[in-house]
Amino acid sequence: MIPQLSKFLGPSNLRKCSPEAYRKLREILCKFEQGAILGNDIQLTDKEIKANETIMCLKMEEYNRGVKDPNQFAPGYHIFERLHEIEKSPLFQLIRKMPKGGALKTHDTSMCSTKFLIGLTYRSHLWACTVDDGCKILEFRFSKEMPTKMRHENGKWEKMDELRDRRGEVNMKKQLLQHFSMYPLSELQTNDKAWDHMMSIFSLLHGLLTYYPVWGEYYYNALKEFSEDGVQYVETRTLLNPLYCLGGNKLPVKETLQVYNEELRRFKADHPDFIDSKIIYSPLRHTTPENMGGHVKTCTELNKEFPKLLVGFDLVGQENEEYPLKMFVNELLKMPSHIKFYFHAGQTNLYGSPLDENIIDALLLGTRRIGHGYALTKHPLIMQLVKRFSIAIEVCPICNQVLQLGADYRNHPAATLIANDIPFVLSSGNPSFWRTKPLSHDFYMAFLGIAPRNADLKFLKRTAKNSMRHSALTDEEKATAMQKWKSKWDEWIDYTIENADDIMKQPEK
Amino acid sequence: MIPQLSKFLGPSNLRKCSPEAYRKLREILCKFEQGAILGNDIQLTDKEIKANETIMCLKMEEYNRGVKDPNQFAPGYHIFERLHEIEKSPLFQLIRKMPKGGALKTHDTSMCSTKFLIGLTYRSHLWACTVDDGCKILEFRFSKEMPTKMRHENGKWEKMDELRDRRGEVNMKKQLLQHFSMYPLSELQTNDKAWDHMMSIFSLLHGLLTYYPVWGEYYYNALKEFSEDGVQYVETRTLLNPLYCLGGNKLPVKETLQVYNEELRRFKADHPDFIDSKIIYSPLRHTTPENMGGHVKTCTELNKEFPKLLVGFDLVGQENEEYPLKMFVNELLKMPSHIKFYFHAGQTNLYGSPLDENIIDALLLGTRRIGHGYALTKHPLIMQLVKRFSIAIEVCPICNQVLQLGADYRNHPAATLIANDIPFVLSSGNPSFWRTKPLSHDFYMAFLGIAPRNADLKFLKRTAKNSMRHSALTDEEKATAMQKWKSKWDEWIDYTIENADDIMKQPEK
Questions:
Q1: Is the pLDDT of residue B188 over 80?
Q2: DSSP states along A146-196
Q3: How many other β-carbons are positioned within 10 Å of the β-carbon of residue A423?
Q4: Cβ distance of A351 and B391 shorter than 8 Å
Q5: Nearest-neighbour CA in chain A from B362: distance (Å)
Q6: A residues 414-473 closer than 8 Å to B (CB)
Q7: Which residues of A touch B347 (CB under 8 A)?
Q8: pLDDT value, residue A41
Q9: Do B26 and A367 touch (CB under 8 A)?
């Protein structure tokens, strides 16, 4: 289309246009542009059109208020500053109820709410390793006797019950609330420091969550919290930590998967609307090619034992110059091709760095999705190939902000992905650490702050549907998934129509 | 290329690749990608290759230091926090000396350094209108007697000499330093507030600069400061304010242009290396279609009188919803087509707003360049047309940061323009208000923080050459311009080679 248009459009010819011709041409150009944006392939039903009116009414009210007074526009601010404000937004509340399909990028120990984590600290036999007279907890461990291993200078093991009594319950709750998430904002100055902070939380949670009886409960609760947020399908990246028992014994890794299997079975029995969950084995990227070879073998073997559960492979941890993806090509190419790759890549704003080039290797290794792909818009050729091969980008807007990649949602590169209709799914990464809902806050920020102003229900529906289309489900499973989601979706549309007046009149609680 | 490649590249086939084939394929893909980036059409001479080694050595030293310790990476911070640090950078010092070609986006009353402005306040007959017992100056006016007009509540006219004596010279200097620029950072919370602040400085400077004897001197000094920063050609947007005389008489607008003409003639005579300067008439966009019709007429008439000087038209002032470009289409289409358009458009991160759509109208009106075009990467179709028609984007990285569009240079959308080889020039907008050099700071930020890590002398040379290619100069004038620039460029290359050791060993002053 471009070459023909250009003859007509050339800058000098344009000046000879009549106002009428100008307006016609403008209309056509806008139609072309609009039609190419993500979500515009969706045909809304009559009911959806009606529900859309309510949604857009809420969106435009909030948007216009933000244009008038930028202080009132949440996507211009850090999530930590606006978390509670957002929860009062009627738009957010409606998005909260929306069936969002799947959450494709989660990490197994950063899924549950802080509240649930604090609850776990009341369990029997829990010990805490503290410094500063108990003001800072560095490690947890379930044990009958005082743990003998001490990995922290000046650390002191103390029974959690006694620590709580000594410091007072209210104090301890406050302290844990801070320990378990990345608040306050002021500590997070750079991408590296934010990563260090995040990794320290993973490390703190390790002994609390890898305790055999807790592990399954955490996972079950994660599925529950996700389900309550309108998520019917979950893919989880996991390091596959071995679990430990009260006596200190470590179990073989396949027990970890066995627990997943069992809890998932139980959760699905309790929640027939829930679609499924799959596991992506994701060891740390900071390793040697030799160890990577070992990970590939482990993954292959575990996949034989759990062929429906463990279906993919990824590498996690901060991308850096020392461990580019290309370092492991020889080993990764040995992975049986039915185990799909879902690589994190390009979670950086350092254009042209080895981190940024991981996108190229993810593509060349045949990845089915790219975790973050924050750098993708700086690689137009790769972006074309990503589109051509239907590789979905797992966009995690809030995660990118908290990890200091970008400050303002209105500048998030996903807007360019949306404009180019690049396969796109929304995820939250580690919602536990930013105290957000499993998907709702990310949907809210993307809908209000990243997508174009007139992005509407079509955008939301396309994004939800994408999460199944680009999942690790088989084609048959996808068909069932789509049915289960569709039935919830129709309910939500009905709810939105029936309660339009209430939804628009007052902020929900 | 894409369709053929894709057969070979399809994600499932890729997994059957041998490591050798993988590496070859990767190499080819990277070459394709690299070759398409802005600047890669440039063939460096042997001498340039040698100078490039020094440049890249400086760049990589600073870049790698920044990767190790992000606190030391200037492009991750606000310019106001790092201004003095940057001046110590050997890379910055070398860029400062580089012949940069033209500065295509400047505004006539925000070009000179604060130092020069403070100097002007020592002139005879200057009055200041102050509030808060002189702590805040709201207006300047040259006059024999005390000015009679009072536009400010509680304002008080006072002779500048007396005010300075009363408040003390050191105090007054500090106060003026703050009045004349947008420091400190803390006051600038949102895009709107930053704009308000900037407009208040324009308003404060009005009476100081539109005084007939000062106007010419300001322009001459602006050309001098730009010239000292390696700029040989300047295009200036101007409101064409009428000038006033000591008695208060206002002169007809053509006198304003006459002063430009005369000062430019004088400057060129004094500086034979300087290429030229052109004027783009740029009234405020916040007006009625009827008034716009008047501006078009004025522009047409003035162009007849100053056909070589006043060659283009633009609209200035903050883009907003009330005054979209499309509102003035009927009037703008009446402009004779030899007067080129150089529209500001899309200086916003509000995707899908009328501000954002100004880009579409700028294109359809046949603009030859787009001022800012910050929103362009959200409009892939327009971006293709912009490239096809060779419309240059005037990228002003520091201006975008100060006006609160984006915080981190590594996220500036111009990286995507560079990756797509979109015609691209660098400019500074209003360097006077951010205390930066006319072009050097913007070049430094773009080179170190926006362009890919391996962007080198080819990028710098392409950017400099683009500023002449996309200027309002005629083809003949461009040939001469290129010669004048080339001779300076060769000198700089020689300087860089000859002083390589000194340049690399110690920070210059």
A1: no
A2: PP----STT-EEEEHHHHHHHH-HHHHHHHHHHHTS---GGG--SHHHHHH
A3: 19
A4: no
A5: 10
A6: 415-416, 419-420, 450-455
A7: none
A8: 95
A9: no
Contact flag B190-A25 (C-beta cutoff 8 Å):
no
- The answer to whether the beta carbons of residues A102 and A275 sit under 8 Å apart is yes
Say how many domains are in chain B.
1
Distance CA B302, CA B311 (A): 9
Query: A117 lies in a domain?
Result: no
Q: How high does pLDDT run on average in chain A?
A: 95
d(CA B153, CA B76): 42
CATH code of residue A316: 3.20.20.140
Q: Do B365 and A192 touch (CB under 8 A)?
A: no
Q: How far is CA B163 from CA B119, B143, B156, B157, in A?
A: 15, 15, 11, 10
- Tell me what percent of the residues of chain A surpass a pLDDT of 70: 96
Q: For B4-20, what is the mean pLDDT?
A: 72
Looking at chain A from residue 183 to 212, which residues have their Cβ under 8 Å from any Cβ of chain B? 189-192
- Distance of residue A111 Cα from the nearest chain B Cα, in angstroms: 28
Round to whole Å and give the CA distance between A386 and A105.
Answer: 18
Strand partners, B233: B102, B276
Give the rounded distance of the alpha carbon of A275 from its chain centre.
18
Which of B391, B419, B450 is facing A379, going by the closest CB pair? Answer: B419
**A35 interface with B at CB cutoff 8 Å:** no
Q: Which residues of B touch A389 (CB under 8 A)?
A: 6, 9-11
Express as a percent the part of chain A with pLDDT over 90. 93
The sign of the dihedral angle between the CA atoms of A224, A264, A270, A496 is positive
Tokens of A207: 């002994």
The minimal CB distance from A411 to the residues B14, B406, B420 is found for: B406
Does the residue B129 lie in any domain?
no
Domain residues for A244?
102-111+234-473
Q: Which of B360, B364, B377 sits opposite A377 (nearest CB)?
A: B377
Task: Check: CB of residue A278 under 8 Å from CB of residue A311.
Answer: yes
pLDDT at B394 over 80: yes
Residue A337 within a domain: yes
Query: Could you report the per-residue pLDDT of B135-172, keeping only the tens digit for each?
Result: 999 999 999 999 999 999 999 999 999 999 999 999 99
Yes or no: say if B103 and B234 are a contact pair by the CB < 8 Å rule.
Answer: yes
Q: Return residues 230-269 of B near A (CB < 8 Å).
A: none
Q: Give the ipTM.
A: 0.94
Does A329 lie at the interface with B, CB-CB under 8 angstroms? yes
Q: In chain B, which residue's Cα lies nearest the Cα of A374?
A: B411
| Record: contact A352-B30, CB cut-off 8 A | no
Q: Which long-range contacts (CB under 8 A, 24 or more apart) does B399-402 make?
A: B399/B372, B399/B428, B399/B429, B399/B430, B399/B434, B400/B347, B400/B372, B400/B374, B401/B78, B401/B79, B402/B79, B402/B80, B402/B182, B402/B188, B402/B194, B402/B433, B402/B434
pLDDT digits 0-9 by tens, A221-253: 999 999 999 999 999 999 999 999 999 999 999
Q: Is residue A229 part of a domain?
A: no
| Backbone region of residue B96 per phi and psi (left: phi > 0; alpha: psi in -120 to 50; beta: other values) | alpha
Give the closest-approach CA distance of A70 to chain B in angstroms: 7
B310-313, strands of its sheet edge to edge: B101-107, B231-238, B276-281, B310-313, B340-345, B369-372, B392-395, B424-426
Strand partners, A344: A371
- Minimal Cα–Cα distance from A297 to chain B, Å? 16
**In angstroms, what separates the C-alpha of A161 from chain B's closest C-alpha?**
41
Phi, psi of B181 (to 5 degrees): -145, 175
CA A407, A412, A417: angle at the middle one, nearest 5? 170
Shortest distance, CA B258 to any CA of chain A (angstroms):
29
Cis peptide before A242 (omega within 30 of 0): no
Provide the 3-class DSSP secondary structure of residue A506. coil
